[in-house]
Amino acid sequence: MLLTLPLDSTKSQSSLKISRVLVVEDEELICETIALALADEGYEVLTAEDGRTALDLIHQAEGVDSNSANRPALSGPRSAQNQQFDLIILDLMLPYINGLDLCRLIRREGNSVPILMLSAKGSETDRVVGLEVGADDYLTKPFGMRELIARCRALLRRYNHLQLEPEQPSLKFRDITLYPQECRVVVRGEEISFSPKEFKILELFMSYPRRVWSREQLLERIWGPDFIGDSKTVDVHIRWLREKLENDPSNPEYLVTVRGFGYRFG
After folding, report:
1. Which residues contact 72 (CB under 8 A, 6 or more apart)?
2. Can you say how many angstroms the Cα of residue 194 is from the centroid of all Cα atoms in its chain?
3. Does 29 score more than 50 pLDDT?
4. Which residue has the higher pLDDT, 129 or 164?
5. pLDDT higher than threshold 70 for residue 4
6. What HEC string does the chain produce?
7. What phi and psi, each to the nearest 5 degrees, are found at residue 143?
8. Would you tell me the crossing angle of helices 99-108 and 51-61 to the nearest 10 degrees?
């Protein structure tokens, strides 16, 4: 069942993107009440009364063939994510596939959609089990609708914030490519291993090519302001970096010494 209501410009969800919520609940009255309350807040709401139907809806939303054993993705770009769910409200006791097993399946398939689990079981053990199988929040029945809406908003805020964080691009200079997210460096087509300090120094240099860094600046940025030791440790790490980056470490073309000032990259 699909429930949508026109957006009120005064509602908190009146942004350009309408959040899409799947409510999985086998008690018809509870399901309808939740769906209507969410729709009134401006969400696009779909409902399912059992776990098997819910799984099919999730696969359809993600462009996945539910009839395939391996469930390969259907052809077409996955960038069309406006049809995917932004939040799943999942009851624990469901026909065919219960809430715990459905949550496990969703997470096993690599889906990171926020899941709010509902249950009449309110013991600490039950809540821990629900969270450990992949739920992001757990709400015990009976609950107030205002609390449910508040929890949904909180989950969506956190999820949308993560989705909006830009991926840090790779840094490239001539024949050196550094991948910040993967902590990898490729030099002239060959992946080279770096210690954490070496990697951080190189990342800093490649982020600001041709900028001159003094030893003191490098110590503060890489080792931290509380570092106690000899500033010559910077020179040692620069030497190690040159041995891994330069064709001729004694005549560097990347890590250049600027006499009286420090070092620059490029």
Report:
1. 64, 65
2. 26
3. yes
4. 129
5. no
6. CEECCCCCCCCCCCCCCCCEEEEECCCHHHHHHHHHHHHHCCCEEEEECCHHHHHHHHHHHCCECCCCCCCCECCCCCCCHHHCCCEEEEECCCCCCCHHHHHHHHHHCCCCCCEEEEECCCCHHHHHHHHHCCCCEEEECCCCHHHHHHHHHHHHHHHHHHHHCCCCCCEEECCEEEECCCCEEEECCEEECCCHHHHHHHHHHHHCCCCEECHHHHHHHHHCCCCCCCCHHHHHHHHHHHHHHCCCCCCCCCEEEECCCEEEEC
7. -135, 160
8. 20
Instruction: Provide CB contacts within 8 A for 203, sequence distance 6+.
Output: 171, 178, 180
Between strands 176-179 and 87-91, the pairing is unpaired
Start-to-end C-alpha separation, the chain: 60
Residue 137, Cα to own-chain centre: how many angstroms?
17
Tell me the one-letter amino acid at 136. D
Cα angle, residue 36 at apex, residues 148 and 143 outer, rounded to 5°: 25
- Residues ≥6 apart with Cβ < 8 Å to 97: 50, 51, 52, 54, 55, 105
pTM over 0.85: no
Check if the beta carbon of residue 64 is closer than 8 Å to that of residue 76: no
Confidence of residue 69 (pLDDT cuts 50, 70, 90): very low
